[in-house]
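Narrative of accomplishments. A recurring question from our advisory board has been how the design workflow behaves on a single, concrete structure rather than in aggregate. To address it, we present the structure tokens for one chain from the evaluation set, followed by the sequence designed for it. No filtering or post-editing was applied between the two.
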């Protein structure tokens, strides 16, 4: 099937719909040769004097103008991507089909007459499997733009899409397939492909995470009535949680006091210690700015408060002296003066590579990574500073305490200390059980 149609996009200012302040909506007109045009509203308005007729974009340098032009660029990319996908499936594409797919609807819809002789739309076809994945990812991208989802999670979704495309070609010899062709065995075969058959196999937990996302796509298809029931519903994606042993406080001290002459490793050490005493994940430390420092309470304590990138849940921690020292150390660093960030942080890949070097020069035989610091923070808060599990959960930005329980292990030392402090409530000094009834009167 070969499709040689071309797409044309025109962004224009609908002056006929201007409001009392002379702002008018911006419209994208889709044209495909051989068929009627279709229009999509950007959901944005621009002033009549701030629309560039020649270049078809908003004029100015304010925040609203940048958002409008960014939306124009993103819509252009999205529509062209969906158009390419439709070319692989249909001999003839209309502007309305492209609009439907962009809006998350089936490409083709037909009109039928009901008993009242009113025209209603009836679904005539469903998107293919990979088209459904693309629609789901496009919706996720919009949520990322609004700050409702994490850009890191979006990368994972795109990775799953790549794995699925490769799997379809490897197992079935096709570039795509209809949704109704997917059976329960799809999950089993996909798992085997990821863990044993592809060139670079991955671990069980990573493979099941890809399948979990695939199940999410099929749940999305079921909600849209593109399939009757998710065929992978019964596939279990849970894995045994591997317990991560946090660093001992003596190891943390060893890292902090180590004299390091190599600047890049000294900065990595500071970032890692910063994480150990704030609990912030990599993407959140990377994005910290002076605006995230807030004065709390009558005493005006300095706290770090930020919406967690992964979940959007607020995480908040008091700035401890060791963190304050690190912040002061980078007060005049380029990361602060030019980029507006609190501390210098490398890319995730480089950061983790440098952490391995740091472990070696500190003489600690452990695999260092950014997530180890988060577990170490939870351990320090719970077992040394004796915060409650609920308080640690709030500082980590977790949705539930159940998640926090995977991070924070109650150590024997804390149990012993608590017992020493509380045993007098149950036993006398000579070890006899107290007369509970009398002591509670």
């Amino acid at each position: 099937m070969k499709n040689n149609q071309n797409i044309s996009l025109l962004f224009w200012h609908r002056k006929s719909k201007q409001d009392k302040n002379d702002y008018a909506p911006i419209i994208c007109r889709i044209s495909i040769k051989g068929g009627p045009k279709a229009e999509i509203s950007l959901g944005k308005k621009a002033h009549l004097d701030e629309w560039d007729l020649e270049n078809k974009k908003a004029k100015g340098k304010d925040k609203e103008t940048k958002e409008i032009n960014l939306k124009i660029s993103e819509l252009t990319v999205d529509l062209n991507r969906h158009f390419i996908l439709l070319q692989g499936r249909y001999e003839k594409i209309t502007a309305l089909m492209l609009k439907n797919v962009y809006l998350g609807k089936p490409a083709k819809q037909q009109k039928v007459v009901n008993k009242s002789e009113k025209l209603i739309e009836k679904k005539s076809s469903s998107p293919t499997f990979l088209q459904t994945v693309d629609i789901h990812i496009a919706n996720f991208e919009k949520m990322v733009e609004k700050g409702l989802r994490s850009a890191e999670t979006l990368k994972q979704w795109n990775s799953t899409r790549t794995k699925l495309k490769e799997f379809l070609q490897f197992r079935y010899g096709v570039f795509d397939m209809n949704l109704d062709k997917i059976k329960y065995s799809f999950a089993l075969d996909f798992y085997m492909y990821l863990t044993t058959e592809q060139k670079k196999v991955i671990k069980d937990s990573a493979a099941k995470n890809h399948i979990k996302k695939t199940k999410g796509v099929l749940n999305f298809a079921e909600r849209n009535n593109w399939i009757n029931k998710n065929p992978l519903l019964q596939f279990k994606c849970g894995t045994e949680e591997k317990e991560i042993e946090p660093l001992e406080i003596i190891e943390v001290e060893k890292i902090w006091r180590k004299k390091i002459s190599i600047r890049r490793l000294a900065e990595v050490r500071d970032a890692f210690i910063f994480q150990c005493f704030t609990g912030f994940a990599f993407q959140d430390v990377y994005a910290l700015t002076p605006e995230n420092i807030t004065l709390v309470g009558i005493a005006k304590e300095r706290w770090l408060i930020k919406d967690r990138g992964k979940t959007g849940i607020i995480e908040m921690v008091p700035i401890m002296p060791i963190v304050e020292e690190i912040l002061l150390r980078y007060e005049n660093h380029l990361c602060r003066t030019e980029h507006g960030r609190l501390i210098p942080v490398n890319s995730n890949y480089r950061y983790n590579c440098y952490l391995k070097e740091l472990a070696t020069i500190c003489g600690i035989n452990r695999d260092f990574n950014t997530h180890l610091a988060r577990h170490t923070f939870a351990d320090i808060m719970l077992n040394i500073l004796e915060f409650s599990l609920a308080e640690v959960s709030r500082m980590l930005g977790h949705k539930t305490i159940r998640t926090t329980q995977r991070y924070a292990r109650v150590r024997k030392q804390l149990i012993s200390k608590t017992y020493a402090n509380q045993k007098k409530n149950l036993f006398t000094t000579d070890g006899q059980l107290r007369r509970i009834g009398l002591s509670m009167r």
